[in-house]
Structures are given as C-alpha cells and as structure tokens.
Specification:
The protein is 32% helix and 21% strand. The chain has 320 residues and is an alpha+beta fold.
Length: 320
C-alpha cells in the first residue's frame, strides 16, 4: 500500500490535481517499455489499492491497444463521474462499446467494455505514454508515479519484468489464491443477491438455496474459470418425445441458458464469466436465471405433470 493516507490518493477528484515534476521522466520510461513489448504481451499500470488502471496490449502489425478502466469494473467512490468521462473523451479515448459479456473478442472484436484507443505501429510511443500519464493524473486521480504499481505478462500468462519503470511489480497470484479469492467473492455476491447471509459452500463446493419451487446451485468451474448456475426443476418425469421437443423449443430462445432432461428430472444450466469477477454481472445473471427457471417450472408442470422440488412455493429469495 502507499505509505501515506490512501483515502487521499484513491478518492475521486473534482478538479485535475497539480502535476508532480516526476511525471515527465516516468512518461519517458513508460514509452521505452511500450516500445519493448512484443506481440501478445501485456502491461497493466494501476493505482495501488484500487481497481483504477490503464493497460496496454501489443498487437504486432496492428500496433498497440490501450485501455482505461471503465465504470463496468468500478464501484462505489471509485466510479468515474461525468467530468472524468468528459475528460476521457477530450483526450481521445473511445467510449466502451458494451458490457463485459457483450464486448468479448468473439462478439465485438473491434470494441471493448473499457475506454480504448488504437495506437498504430511505427508511431512514436511517447505520445501514447503522455496520453496514459495525463489520464492517470487528470482522470484517475494519481498524484505521483510512486502511487502506481504494475503487472506484465504474455498470452501464456508468463510474468514479464520491467524494472526500468521504477514501479513496484505486483506478484502474480498462485492458482489456489485466485480460486480462493473468486470463491469468497462469489459467496458474498450470492448472499447479497438472495439476502441469505448464512449461505455456505457444501462439500462439493456448491452454494445451494431454494427459489420458488426450484433448487439452485452456484459454483466455480473450468479454465478459464466460470460461474456455473444450475437448477433442479421438475422430477419424477418420463422422457417423452413431447417433453424433449418442448425443452428444445425453450432452448432456442434462452441464449446461453440450457434446459435438459436427466435421470427423470428437468434441469437447467448457465455459465457466467468469472474473470474479471464483476459482482453486478453475476447478480443480474443469477436473478434472471432463477426467475426464468421458476416460471418455466410452472409451465412444464402444467403440461407434463411431475413433482416440483418444493410443493408449496417459497418466497422469492432474489431481489426484483
């Protein structure tokens, strides 16, 4: 952490702070490091103790992509106000093109959920370094380069070291550290969404609760890690062709959510990206998943019978 009152460093600023005399030298060092980045290498420069950052991705023939964190990844007092957003536009940053799920490389290859700018190859990188410094000072409220830290890595997640930046390097977390942190964040988010503060992980590392007439489980799965939402809906059913056809009909309009029949029961599953972990994304996905599954449970029971996990509907535990 910074060796001074952190609140004075990380709080949003209403007017651009006075620039330290150490920024020009840092901008020169940053430009040198940006010039050393090879294709598929990445540099993230952030304000200590916050989620505020600028980051750079080397793209070979296509130059460099630079991004400044957007409100998609900020919460509470760290969120950017209208003055800061206007300043980003004045500096030439493009507005985010969508949310994190909408602006993935597959869905939006030319956009980003962050503010972004493309820097052509063979263009003087001192200009990009100056843009980053101005953004750090005027928008993200960094008073001095000493309040910054960095991490750098390649597409294989191999750590890169740039001591010439003069910044503290963030040690890469171990795999166990990442999972433990994500599990902690997921549990806190599910507790907040459901209002059930006593929820815990079971022996299978699932968080379970009842919503309406269905049972819901949430957990972390896979690599890259995802939040998996699962629902147990109707039971004691036979896999009649009409039921399977009805499930396929629903699946055609459910996007990433999927209904299926297994061992005499109708079940549902949906995955949500867990890295970076954005509680608001998980909360919205969980609320929508529960509401859709509960409604479809009633529709399917009216058509095909079967038993619900809960015979008498329990009060909704997710917020509307």
């Amino acid at each position: 952490m910074a060796p001074i009152d952190q609140q004075s460093v990380s709080a949003p600023v209403s007017v651009p702070p006075k620039r330290s005399a150490d920024w020009p030298a840092f901008a020169q060092r940053l430009a040198s490091v940006l010039g050393a980045l090879q294709e598929d290498q990445y540099l993230v420069v952030s304000l200590k103790g916050t989620d505020r950052y600028v980051q750079f991705a080397a793209q070979g023939h296509w130059g460099l992509r630079a991004e400044c964190v957007s409100n998609e990844y900020l919460s509470g007092p760290e969120r950017l106000d209208e003055r800061q957003l206007a300043r980003l536009r004045d500096l030439g940053w493009h507005d985010p093109t969508g949310s994190a799920p909408e602006s993935t490389p597959e869905c939006d290859p030319d956009g980003s959920p962050n503010h972004f700018v493309e820097w052509p190859a063979k263009t003087a990188l001192v200009g990009l370094a100056d843009l980053a410094v101005t953004t750090l000072v005027d928008v993200l409220g960094v008073a001095h380069p000493g309040f910054l830290e960095y991490k750098a890595f390649d597409s294989q997640e191999q750590t890169l070291v740039f001591d010439e930046l003069g910044l503290r390097r963030v040690a890469p977390p171990t795999g166990a550290d990442v999972v433990a942190d994500l599990e902690h964040r997921l549990l806190a988010t599910v507790r907040e969404t459901t209002g059930l503060g006593s929820l815990e992980y079971d022996d299978d590392r699932d968080i379970g609760f009842v919503h309406g007439r269905i049972g819901v489980l949430t957990s972390l799965v896979g690599n890259p890690v995802r939040v998996r939402l699962r629902a147990l809906m109707l039971t004691d059913l036979e896999g009649a062709p009409a039921l399977l056809e009805r499930l396929n009909h629903f699946n055609a309009g459910l996007g990433s959510m999927h209904l299926f029949f297994h061992r005499g029961a109708v079940r549902a599953v949906s995955d949500v990206p867990a890295w970076p972990f954005v509680p608001e994304h998980v909360e919205r996905a969980l609320e929508e998943f529960c509401q859709i599954c509960d409604a479809l449970n009633d529709l399917l029971q009216a058509e095909f019978g079967g038993d619900s996990l809960v015979n008498e509907e329990t009060p909704s535990v997710t917020r509307h």
